[in-house]
Amino acid sequence: MRRTIVLKAILLTLSGAFYPGSSAAARSPAPIPPGAGDSQITQISARLSSGKTSCVSVIEARLDRIRRLDGSLHAVTAISPIALDEAQRIDALPRRARRALPLACVPLLVKDNIDVAGMVTTSGSVALAGNVASDNAWVVARLKRAGAIVVAKTNMSEFAFNYRGRSSIRGQTTSPFAFSESAGGSSSGNAAALAAGFGAIALGTDTSGSARVPAALSGLVGLRPTFGALPMGGVLPLSPSQDVIGPMCTHVADCAAVWSVLTSTHDTPAGRPLKNLRVGVLSAFMRPDAKAETQALERLRAAGATVADIHLRDETVLVGKNAPIGETATFASRSVFDFPGVMDAYLPWRAGVPHDAGALLAELRHQAANGNTDPRVVEDVAKFITNRAGAARDPRFRVNGMFRDRYVADRLDEAFDCTSGRACVDVIVYPSVQVPFATADAGPETAGTHRLAAYSGRPAIAIPIGAVLTTGGLRPVSLELLGRRGDDRRLLAIAAAWQARLALPRIIPCESAKALVCLTDPAPNARRH
Questions:
Q1: pLDDT for position 348
Q2: Out of 57, 80, 111, 478, which one is annotated catalytic?
Q3: Which of 17, 142, 150, 405 could make an SS bond with 12 (beta carbons 3.0 to 4.6 A apart)?
Q4: Is 333 one of the catalytic residues?
Q5: Can you tell me the mean pLDDT for 299-312?
Q6: For this structure, is 111 an active site residue?
Q7: Using the 8-state DSSP alphabet, how is residue 528 labeled?
Q8: Residues 465-488: what's their mean pLDDT?
Q9: Average pLDDT over residues 484-492
Q10: How far is it, in rounded angstroms, from Cα 225 to Cα 245?
């Protein structure tokens, strides 16, 4: 009963019942187009400092866009009931105090497996609709202290199990470029909401591509930090040996600003980040007829980087296509074994939820019988519980632990090893997705490249680099950069310098019955995919 009441409250929040009246009720401003001028954080700061707007107006506009436009996206699970109160507090600060906040009045979206005090953390499941957070997750608290304002929690693949972007809380998150397409996952709501202008920055999680894949499909930036770089307190986990929290943004500069706040680092790598940069391109995973990618790599060369095709040792094993020699199991996420133990550790500390993994499965079966959740999720949870019981005899469990992580790390270390005059790289480049759009049923095709960062602990960032013409229209093209462990700041600097040299497509509003936004391509010769 409690879960039913809370779920109804969530839906009422989205319908606007908890949303105070505002002067933005007409039509909110369109989002600042990615690729156009300064970052959103910079523009919001400049407008506040000049007195051209108030924080209340900034937040009202974003809340209004959510209320008007999310009906087709299903990107938001709940609107913050205190967002306007926090905006009023920002407006009431003395000018000097407001300027001291690096993220003053920046609208923040938070994936629904990350705690925001007073809001539910459902991980996309109706079975956790009563899971009200008493405190903010560490990362949320850090950004709020810097002046960011949570405007909404966002939809996600249920329990972050896959890339499809569907939950039993809000259904299928669609792409803002075409409602018939998926926004990917598992951080689907973040990607769709950012592209639609619902927020300026977002906090997502990435177990094995969950931030980078949807960012790639939506023409956004998604950072998977070095494993362990940020505390995971207040996050509903999936696989603790792989889980990380990372920012998603429309501009690399915005993600860099968020990273500075989260890590208390404000140093910028000296010199020209692209000069003499050694870039290895995983040519075996590049799209055929990759015109946008080729042009972007030429911009790197023109900036002084050395760009060369490379092959990693055993690269088909690293991405999960083939099993290691002598083994029968391929590399895959450990979450298929970890999830029951994660729930057994997490649920007893929360109120209004099942008490362990077995009780969660029973609740999911009850919800599925009433048509409230996807039977495939129930099957997955049942399978994962069975996997745990038989883990000691399962070759997948033995292979996908320390053996897998060491295997992947060793082969990537070889590529980055510059000792004794070896040919080496500073970053490795490859696509996050193979096709620039995805269907809701199948989800996106990744070719397994998302595993490289997830299993090695290295940082990786997906950035938009161009566009391609598909049968559904113009879609973003993205590339992912893999860097050295602990060198996240340099990776962000490299991505920002590269992005600054690209003629990026812009996301512009084109509201219709089929889409919310469109891309405008500065290059007239985009190829059809």
A1: 98
A2: 111
A3: 17
A4: no
A5: 97
A6: yes
A7: B
A8: 96
A9: 97
A10: 7
Strands 473-482 and 427-430: antiparallel
Segment 60-70, tens digit of pLDDT: 999 999 999 99
CB 280 within 8 Å of CB 233 = no
* DSSP conformation letters of 250-287: SSHHHHHHHHHHHHT------S-TTTT-EEEEEGGGSP
Q: Which residues does 261 contact at the CB level (< 8 Å), separation at least 6? A: 102, 103, 142, 143, 146
Catalytic residue of the set 123, 210, 432, 456: 210
Our answer to whether residue 275 is catalytic in this structure is: no
Q: What is the pLDDT of residue 32?
A: 52
Contact present, 200 and 207 (Cβ < 8 Å): no
Task: Reduce the DSSP state of residue 309 to 3 states and report it.
Answer: strand
Q: Any residues with CB less than 8 A from the CB of 344 and at least 6 apart, and which?
A: 356, 357
Distance of alpha carbon 296 from alpha carbon 98, whole angstroms: 38
Determine if the pTM surpasses 0.85.
yes
Cα distance between residue 309 and residue 287, in whole Å? 14
Boundaries of domain holding 209 = 2-20+34-265+272-326+402-520
User: What is the residue type of 460?
Assistant: A
Supply 24's token pair: 């933005």
Query: What is the residue type of 318?
Result: L
User: In total, how many domains does the chain have?
Assistant: 1
Q: What is 490-518 written as a DSSP string?
A: HHHHHHHHHHHTS---EEEE--SSS-SEE
**Is 106 a member of any domain?**
yes
Where residue 102 sits, what CATH number does that domain have?
A: 3.90.1300.10
pLDDT for position 213? 98
Residue 65 lies in a domain: yes
- Which residue of the set 57, 186, 187, 456 is catalytic? 186
Rounded distance between C-alpha atoms, residue 225 and residue 246, angstroms: 6
